[in-house]
Amino acid sequence: MSAKKTKTLLLASIAIFLAISLMLFPKESLEASVRGMNIWWNVVFPSLLPFFIVSELLISFGVVTLIGTLLEPLMRPLFRVPGVGGFVWAMGLASGNPAGAKLTARLRLENKLTQIEAERLVSFTSSSNPLFIFGAVAVGFFHNPALGILLACAHYGANLFVGLIMRFYMEKENRQAQKELELTRQDDKSGPKWLTVLYEEHQKDGRSLGKVLGDAVQSSVQTLLIVGGFIILFSVINKVLTLVHFVDLVGYVIGLLLVMLHLPVELGQPIISGLFEMTLGAQRVSETTQSNLLQQVIAVSFLLGFSGFSIQAQVASLLAETDIRFKPFIIGRVLQGLFAAGLVIVLFQPLYIERKPIVFFETVIPVFNQIDKVQTTWGQFLQISPYITLTMLIIATFIWTYRQLNKSTKKSYR
């Protein structure tokens, strides 16, 4: 049997298994689906949508190209990617997964990156946003905002290390592609003025302001609908695998590996859950009573870096529109998980045990003591987030309907 036929048989078997499991566990599957829907509706959609829309506008108006010219001296020597990679990295850090992959794919489609540069970039621009790390994980799961600093430093530090390693990815193969791309760019080596850069990029785009805004909203909502589908799907898959004791079995095997690493075997099952959906895994790790705080934070930091199969599937769907290969992204996730776990071990003592209150001015309250402020901010966000989601879905539906009616009207006059 050929490899392609074997792959087809395997995928068909998995689909049949999931269909049978849904029929055997309808109530549990529904509950898992609702849980995934709540995560998307209350957190993912309202937190990512503004960044997606703003990034689309910045690309359309040439701001990203301008930022690229300014960051070229930094990004090229460090990561061997163009300056526009700095914009992708910053937006990925600020907005979280899968913003880095979406922007990388967009820039690749516009030929601002070579294939190998895009693969390098997507491997280290995937991260959780600060609101999730501080609000959901540190405060929501551990009830300890001081852990937010530790987790954030380990998480974003691991991003940096992955980028420095991936700069060597297919170095020789990228040189020729980079030369060809430079010829198509036809950059003025003397350096064009910033206003000229903005004007030329906007002229290349050619869309009116209303068209740009409508496309930005519609494209962002469509992407987030796909993201929501993956979140719900993997929430159900995770629940089904738990019910059929697959998580218990694999968790036992992982537990043997954890013993070798001097970690409690009880973390095995939560880690397996986190490999599918990192939010659920992080919550289960925080509830494990047989492990100490350092062991829990190591496990959570690894899961945040690895991102989970749910986010990886979202990224795969975004990259499918381009020639960007998925393998470098997977390598980056494994490396980031390992680096993040290692950085927690190194930074736990100075950033958590021996920490001192951080003050920006003498009259400012120490950051580590602002637990009530962090909890209030996160709670307020969760209160207004459903209304943001509903409003933007209505606007996107209106835009789509308006454009469909215009198309129908134009066809009727022909």
TrEMBL record:
TM stretches of this protein: 48-71, 121-142, 148-169, 212-237, 243-263, 334-353, 384-402
Matching Pfam families: Gate
Source organism superkingdom: Bacteria
Keyword Membrane: yes
Protein name in the entry: Sporulation protein
Biological source species: Alkalihalobacillus alcalophilus ATCC 27647 = CGMCC 1.3604
Stored NCBIfam families: spore_ylbJ
Keyword field: Membrane, Transmembrane, Transmembrane helix
Xref: InterPro entries: Gate_dom, Spore_IM_YlbJ
Domain Nucleoside transporter/FeoB GTPase Gate per the UniProt entry, residue ranges: 43-140, 225-319
